[in-house]
Amino acid sequence: YVGLDISGLAFDGRGRSVDATASFSVAGVYSFGAVGGSIRDCEFFDHHSEAISSQRGTSIDIHNNEIRNQRFNGIHTGLQSEGTDLRNNTIKNCGGTGLYTSDGLNGVTIVSNEVFDCEGQNPLNPPPSYSSNAGGIGDLDAGGGDNDNNTLRDNLVDLTGVNAMGVEIGAVSNVKVTGNRIFGNEDGVVANGATDLALRNNTIDVSGQARNLSGTRITVNGWGQSSGPPASTGEWSGQGIQGVGVRDVSNDKLFLYLQ
Question: What is the pTM of this model?
């Protein structure tokens, strides 16, 4: 269906702990299968589930919303959504993840959002596709298809008032994490099973590990690693990217792909 443009409204959930059915098709605004449309300049507070849930949508803009005190995620987009743009939203004091993407997304842009003190917890024991252990941003393939070609750029994640990791990247591919500022008491960026993940120019000030990364062809500020000559062995063989450097950790030699 053609998506609606929703703007300038206040959504009062009447209490984060309200006695209501734990259905994750319930949110302040729940959208399924929309093409186009936007949710912008709205206020969401005190809801027992999520503020905004956009599933199986195409080219939806979620901009300039203020979200606080949700029992679970602030914004959740998933189920083969494509081209969703999450921009300039402010999210505070949610029980789950501030910005969560899951299940077969393509071309999702998460830019210039601010997330404060979200806990990364699963208070309602939701299905895996609805949860991340990150308080700030979670970009995960939770079993409903690959998350590809997503961008996380210029976001602020400040979790200094809680204990939760900043950003969690799962079994996704071709995701760019650039220019983000991450502060907190646990790990900054955690990746598990990602392919062609690129991190560049992020500011990470946390008590845990700044980066806890596993996967295939992960680069940090333009450099990856291999165990052996990358032109002929390992994950970089035949997969070089122009301008990317690779360090052979077996002998500390540096290689640069020129074409």
Answer: 0.90
**Separation between Cα atoms, residue 103 and residue 52, nearest integer Å:** 16
pLDDT in tens, 55-98: 888 889 999 999 999 988 999 887 777 778 999 999 999 998 99
Please provide the average confidence, as pLDDT, over all residues in the chain.
86
Three-state SS at 5: strand
* Rg (the chain; Cα; Å): 19
Conformational region of residue 51, where left means phi above 0, alpha means psi within -120 to 50, and beta covers everything else: alpha
DSSP H stretches of helix in the chain:
none
And the tokens for 32? 């399924």
User: Rounded to whole angstroms, how far apart are CA atoms 32 and 132?
Assistant: 21
Residue at 6: amino acid letter: I
Question: Is 52:75 a contact under the CB 8 Å cutoff?
Answer: yes
d(CA 14, CA 25): 18
